[in-house]
Amino acid sequence: MGIKGLMIAAPSSGTGKTTVSIGIMKALTDMGLKVQPFKVGPDYIDTGFHYFASGNESHNLDSVMGSNNTVKEIYYHNSEGKDISIIEGVMGLFDGKAGNSLKGSSFEISRILGIPIVMVIDISASGRSAAAVVKGFRDFDKRALLKGVILNRAGSDYHCSMVKEAIETTTGIKVLGCIKRNNELKLGSRYLGLVTAAENQINDAYLKNLSSLIRNSIDLEQIVKISSTASKPSKYKPVIYNRREKEKCTIGIAYNKAFTFYYPENIELLKKFGAKIIYFDPVIDRKLPHMDGIYIGGGYPELYAGELSGNSALLAEIKEKIDDGMPVFAECGGYMYLSESINYGDAEYPMVGAIPARTHMEGLSLGYRKIYPAAPGEILKEGEKAMGHEFHYSRIVFNKSHSEAYKFENGKSEGYSSKNILSGYAHLYFPSNQNVPKRFVKQCVEYKNKTVE
């Protein structure tokens, strides 16, 4: 039996693709369908919106950080038992890792999975020219399974009908709907892209209004019909969602409004190798629950620096546990949290202090990374690599010499490494090297056995 699925793509970023995607997810959910959301690329923020809209955890499909097999496994496994899968694309349909490559593009993901594409076109400043855009995308690579178009930010009914006629008569591609300009439903943006779902206050009222707008503007029956043209699942080898080892240690994950950036597959692989996962809130919890290791992901700790800093009891306990040898794996925001302080605005906020450095909000660094150990370590061994990405507007300044965690293909290195700390700005994608979660779990088991003794 096939999996119903389609991709919501666009000519570029800024077309309203995310708003339309979550609107379709919510509208289909309101119709009683079980919707499984996905996001092309490494983005953490859109997946948060998807969860609020569908009630199901969204997963990233990334052909740069992961193999084709990984993309298939994540998509097929999580689509099981669902009525329809909706994939939100990234940037423009053909935008990938490089100008001469489709690697990592929405188009490539569509090709790997045999998924039909529906494009969102911003027509706020165009008329018949929108047909040229659609025709250009259709003809740029005729392998693209472009099955429909959604017009967004129209000025009037006449504007909708004019552009619809131009596209359908010129290209033969059906216009599935037209959405009028509506600033009240526009999602906000932050320096790393969209603000998180929590910051946007994506509440029931917002989703209800968005769902109503989509149901009144888009032919959802056609959306479902197009999704049924997706190719049947092709063969893949299960390497993530396969046999789990017996639980042998407990890993605590920092999760709250400051730390929300985690790949579900990273957590799944920790479980696969024997970790029991629990969560704690670095703002609210005054004491750590029992754990044998800590995983602190990314987010926006600078926005909540005052609240994080105010929980001095937890900061002190985390520092004490790390000094005692408890393993900790920290990425980006978690790396900042482990430093001595975060400078944000006109204030400096004390943090854990496990890393001899201070965090300053300045400079942009983003992009995919091939990640190698800067020195032989406990988790990432010499001669190995993992894939990941950087995406931050801060800089950590060390006040004494230290061992760095990672080095990149371009020769640069970053992060902090000690016997029980592996941390840096790079977000590691565990499916790219399963030895990373496996060894972290092993490290946590060794710490557990040591403390029992």
Automatic annotation (TrEMBL):
Reactions this protein catalyses:
cob(II)yrinate + 2 L-glutamine + 2 ATP + 2 H2O = cob(II)yrinate a,c diamide + 2 L-glutamate + 2 ADP + 2 phosphate + 2 H(+)
Q: In which pathway does it act?
A: Cofactor biosynthesis; adenosylcobalamin biosynthesis; cob(II)yrinate a,c-diamide from sirohydrochlorin (anaerobic route): step 10/10
User: Which positions fall inside the CobB/CobQ-like glutamine amidotransferase domain?
Assistant: 250-433
Q: Which UniProt keywords apply?
A: ATP-binding, Cobalamin biosynthesis, Glutamine amidotransferase, Ligase, Magnesium, Nucleotide-binding
Report a single Gene Ontology molecular function: ATP binding
Query: Which EC number applies?
Result: 6.3.5.11
**InterPro entries membership:** CbiA/CobB_synth (IPR004484), Class_I_gatase-like (IPR029062), CobQ/CobB/MinD/ParA_Nub-bd_dom (IPR002586), GATase_3 (IPR011698), P-loop_NTPase (IPR027417)
Q: Which cofactor does it need?
A: Mg(2+)
Q: Which PROSITE patterns match?
A: GATASE_COBBQ
Q: Which GO terms describe its biological process?
A: cobalamin biosynthetic process
Q: Where is this site: Increases nucleophilicity of active site Cys?
A: 427
Q: List the active site.
A: 332
Q: Which domain of life is it from?
A: Archaea
Pfam families, sorted = CbiA, GATase_3
Q: Which residues form the CobQ/CobB/MinD/ParA nucleotide binding domain?
A: 6-187
- What is recorded about the protein's domains? Comprises of two domains. The C-terminal domain contains the binding site for glutamine and catalyzes the hydrolysis of this substrate to glutamate and ammonia. The N-terminal domain is anticipated to bind ATP and cobyrinate and catalyzes the ultimate synthesis of the diamide product. The ammonia produced via the glutaminase domain is probably translocated to the adjacent domain via a molecular tunnel, where it reacts with an activated intermediate.
Q: What else is known?
A: The a and c carboxylates of cobyrinate are activated for nucleophilic attack via formation of a phosphorylated intermediate by ATP. CbiA catalyzes first the amidation of the c-carboxylate, and then that of the a-carboxylate.
Which PANTHER family does the entry link to?
A: COBYRINATE A,C-DIAMIDE SYNTHASE
Report the protein's function.
Catalyzes the ATP-dependent amidation of the two carboxylate groups at positions a and c of cobyrinate, using either L-glutamine or ammonia as the nitrogen source.
By its UniProt entry, which NCBIfam families does this protein fall under? cobB (TIGR00379), PRK01077.1 (NF002204)
Instruction: Give the family per the record.
Output: Belongs to the CobB/CbiA family.
User: What is the protein's name according to its record?
Assistant: Cobyrinate a,c-diamide synthase
The organism of origin for this protein? Ferroplasma acidiphilum
